[in-house]
TrEMBL record:
The protein's name in its UniProt record: Enoyl-CoA hydratase/isomerase family protein
Organism name: Xanthobacter dioxanivorans
GO molecular function: catalytic activity
Superkingdom of origin organism: Bacteria
PANTHER family named among the record's database cross-references: ENOYL-COA HYDRATASE, MITOCHONDRIAL, ENOYL-COA HYDRATASE-RELATED
GO biological process, one term: fatty acid beta-oxidation
SUPFAM superfamilies, A to Z: ClpP/crotonase
InterPro entries for the chain: ClpP/crotonase-like_dom_sf, Enoyl-CoA_hyd/isom_CS, Enoyl-CoA_hydra/iso
Length: 259
């Protein structure tokens, strides 16, 4: 089964679902439409019984997802618009987080800002040798905007997560693996798909129902009350930062450099 939305390519091969963000001309930036389509696809395929795993990646070799689409979002400056943006991003990433099967992010290039949040919302992250990841939101004088801080904290701890967001550094693949952001990195001259296929082999050898059982047990270990509290604080802080003069001055400088 293959399908194409405006922003995504979707394919099912056996028990494997592949979702590709198909905006290479925009470095697979996350527009509102992209976020809505991610929510729709992961919600729809959650009910398909014969699937065992989902793989999320970006088109091309430059970017998994290079953050939010600043060109599109340049006019979204009010508190209401900032809240709606956060809610759309949170809904999309929650659909990934709550997908009842393991979700593997195959990082074919950089994952920056909201793209890093999307990668961390997945259960596993496999990376090409040239891939990189960065919570670079502070460069634009904003906080995480898609509910990603809890995922980062779960992976590396609250203290390291705070330091990583304050530094706004971009970590190349080997260091990202050492930091606990990537689960595996492709070897020299090894295609990313070879790494992905090797990682998926034991998952695809199990019954699909077992993959659902194991994912359910893993999610049960999470603290939903804590995640909800963190998300509410994150939303309020994102709205304040997004509507600040400092953010829009930084965004205007970045857009000017790209034009």
């Amino acid at each position: 089964m293959n399908a194409q939305t405006h922003q995504l390519r979707v394919a099912v091969t056996g028990a494997r679902l592949d979702v590709v963000i198909d905006r290479p001309q925009a470095r697979n930036a996350l527009s509102l439409e992209t976020l809505h389509e991610l929510e729709m696809v992961f919600t729809r395929f959650a009910e398909v019984p014969d699937l065992s795993v989902a793989v999320l990646t970006g088109a091309g070799e430059r970017a998994f997802a290079a953050g939010g689409d600043l060109k599109e979002l340049n006019d979204h400056r009010s508190e209401a618009q900032a809240g709606a943006l956060f809610d759309a991003g949170r809904a999309a990433l929650d659909a990934v987080r709550r997908f009842p099967l393991p979700v593997v992010a195959a990082l074919n290039g950089v994952a920056l800002g909201g793209g890093a949040e999307l990668a961390m919302a997945c259960d596993f992250r496999l990376a090409a040798g040239h891939a990189a990841i960065g919570f670079v939101q502070a460069q634009l004088a904003i906080t995480t905007g898609f509910g990603g801080v809890a995922d980062l904290q779960a992976a590396i701890g609250p203290r390291k997560a705070m330091g990583m967001m304050l530094s706004a550094r971009v970590f190349k693949a080997p260091e990202a693996e050492a930091q606990g952001l990537f689960d595996a990195v492709a070897g020299e001259n090894e295609p990313l798909e070879v790494l992905v296929s090797r990682f998926l082999t034991p998952i695809l050898e199990r019954p699909p129902a077992l993959a659902r059982d194991i994912k359910a047990v893993a999610r049960a270990a999470m603290d939903p009350a804590r995640c909800a509290a963190v998300g509410e604080e994150e939303r309020a802080r994102f709205i304040r930062a997004w509507t600040s003069e400092e953010h829009w001055a930084a965004a205007d400088r970045l857009l000017a450099r790209r034009s």
